[in-house]
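Students often ask what a holo structure prediction actually looks like on paper. The answer is less mysterious than it sounds. You provide the chain, you provide the ligand, and the output is a string of discrete structure tokens encoding the 3D arrangement of the protein together with magnesium ion.
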Amino acid sequence: MTPRDQYVFKILLLGDGGVGKTSLLHRFIDNTFEPDYKSTIGVQFMTKVVETENESVKLIIWDIAGQSKFTSYRHLYYRDAEGIILVYDITRPRTFENLSIWITDALQRTTRKTKIALLGNKVDLVDQRLVTRIYGEQFAKLHENIVCFSETSAATGENVDEAFKTLVEFLMRSSRGG
Ligand code: G3D
Ligand code: MG
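The corresponding structure tokens follow.
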């Protein structure tokens, strides 16, 4: 296979500040978790090649600061994204309540085919949970762009690889016209 044959997908990580976007990215890319990543300044991206369904798929994953002060240029990164990983924190209901704002905003600036994976992160914090799983499941059902929902932990790695992989499978199906 030549590099030209690879699938390439651009994926955005979105969600309120502090929900664990940067931590999920590091867990997925190099399987690490450091409790003290500096709050993301502006934008960074990381790439990873994954094998799925016997194909080589290159992911370019953009981690965009959630703070509102970056809003003005955040949108420049949205336009040609194929996938979005939208994250909330199961210990902070406010981050769940804000999901609709993130979705509306993103869908206005990307193509209609954009596929969203919804992640309820920090499930390791069992005693601090304030958003039950059923809320996430129901929210996902209500939005046709949300193709999958999982509860994850960047701290333990629970479901992180699986969530990315599921989104990639949907993106591949979609790019083949399925
Ligand atoms: P963000 O990129 O969405 O802003 P970060 O979020 O990845 O910077 O994470 C914000 C805080 O939540 C960090 O803690 C980080 O360690 C913690 N965190 C991220 N994911 C998880 C998780 O799955 N479980 C737990 N227990 N903590 C998580 P600090 O203390 O640096 O604010
Ligand atoms: Mg961050």
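The mean pLDDT is 89.
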